[in-house]
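Retro notes, item 3 of 5
We never archived the inputs for the alpha-D-glucopyranose complex last cycle. Fixing that now. Sequence and ligand:
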Amino acid sequence: MEMEKERDPLVPHRHVRTDKPYPQPTPRSSPFPPPPAPQHFHVSRFIAFVVIWFWSLVCVMNATGSMGIAVTVRPCCRLLVAQLFPECPCHQRRAAAAAAFFFPRCPHDRRRAPALSLAPQRRSAASLVRAALAPARDEAAVSDARRLSTAAGPVPGVDRAFERIFVQGLAAVEPLVIERVAEKERMLVVEEKRKVEEVEEEQRTEVTKAREVSESEKEAWRLLKNAVVEYCGSPVGTVAATDPAAEALNYDQVFIRDFVPSALAFLLKGETEIVRNFLLYTLQLQSWEKTVDCYSPGQGLMPASFKVRSVPLDVSKDEVEEMLDPDFGESAIGRVAPVDSGLWWIILLRAYGKITGDYTLQERVDVQTGIKLILNLCLSDGFDMFPTLLVTDGSCMIDRRMGIHGHPLEIQALFYCALRCSREMIAVNDGSKSLLRAINNRLSALSFHIREYYWVDMKKINEIYRYKTEEYSQDAINKFNIYPEQIPGWLVDWVPEKGGYFIGNLQPAHMDFRFFSLGNLWAIVSSLATPRQAEGILDLIEEKWDDLVGNMPLKICYPALEYEEWRIITGSDPKNTPWSYHNGGSWPTLLWQFTSACIKMGRPELARKAITIAENRLSNDKWPEYYDTPTGRFIGKQSRLYQTWTIAGFLASKLLLENPEMASILTFEEDLELLEGCACNLIKSPRTQCSRRAAKSHVLH
Ligand code: GLC
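Structure as it came back at the time:
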């Protein structure tokens, strides 16, 4: 696939130092209309005008009494101005200006555009909800442009109702019907009052919410802010943990995946700057140069983490400069490849755009190139036969040997989600057409593959139990030659009648039946799962609550590898002993992903139940990274305390529950276009026409 080469690959990006790396935002132009041009009046017109004005005032006083004067006289007078200055109706704004000259006070016009009174980086939750719910990106961009433009059109939030009435009256040039105008004015006053009450109510709600913030939330915010890392004076991320008692190892670094819940919490709070900086600085770290033993990772790989280092300046040893030092796995324990980093980066980029309405970020040439490089790496041809992404062990949140090499669900779900995000964000032009086609094809094939072959429930397990093996031909039912003996003993009793889940991995002659939370939750969030499968996953979590949630949400995977399996699969890893850490430990950071999935499926009560369990313990336990034992009763053996993504995940979950609409910055709905591609795979004959109906009936039911 051909890539645009905006960055010079010869320029090392390993150590980046740029004091002012990004263009400062252009100063906003005034949101208010320009002052009206001065009017030139003829003296005789002016005298005539004054006479008529007094006459109309007397009439009105007679007709309405003193209380009505204020509201009735203004429109009348404006109409008179219009009559006296016939050029005005053609230039409505000038007419308004002329009227304002004689009748300067407009008591209705006292409110300003609310968005403008807010600092650019802090927006109220309500305005964020509105931004996130804005249906289409173009509309959002347009509406933003309108708000910031100096054009004469109406400015949202600025009360132009008064002028609207005036202008409409002019166009019709109706006789003075005072009662009708008075009624309109009265309606305006009522409307005005209602709006003011609404604003006051909104403020009251925010105050109430602020009062309801629990002690643990307050503590969490304090800790999260303490974890913020600055680079050249700007916030760029959060460190993985701030446990003073434990050896830092690489927990003093900003991990890409760990920062996602922090970013979400900040975004939901209206603090967007740190996320923007993070997205842009990590983009500069995207891989270009040799890392592990003189072997370079694919162009486009995002680091697992980075650290801000202070190094002495060459010239003066006393002075230091800051540098960003990325880790692509070459320093990580086990030298694991961070495949998920780029996928998370893309997912966060979309969320940032949706919540802030600032689509200019994703439209930048360097950002577009960044997305394409990541995708290029994921979509490039290899030896693989499947649409799923082939990776090494430990290439995601589980970054140690745990038998998740091959096609682990977690990577597939994030991959699917990142593809859907990219499809939305990549600018359509001649240069991107083939990439977009490749994305669509992959999405269809990937969703078909996962929905069809990774899904298990009672019925499917029974089918596998009766599989014939050694089938040869394209029509084989047991395509991957799975030997039924592989069905583990625990699964037979564990799988509930209601619900199901996606298995952890699928390879030739191998199904990993373990339940992995992150992959299953992102399958719901991204609509990789059909609606029915998504329901089934939550049903299963509800049915198996004690196993998957227990005393701390949520099990990273279930069940743990024990005995021989543990010895062979983990390589006798003392950190991943049964029911500890990655091997069946409970990770509170999974809570925000569970909350997003529950909200998407209209089951927030499940999330609320899980959050209550977490809230009762996390602060007392000092925000551990993970918990041990089958029901998550103990703080993890080697668990860090004050783990940032535990803290941020809890905050993000709380904020999402308070503003469930905001989950839409992460979620996707079923896409019929993709289903068509999917259905083509299901229908036996390749010549059969694919239709949306066929797609729906095959995939949704
Ligand atoms: C552990 C986790 C990994 C996380 C890192 C930093 O290595 O397995 O997912 O990113 O800690 O918190």
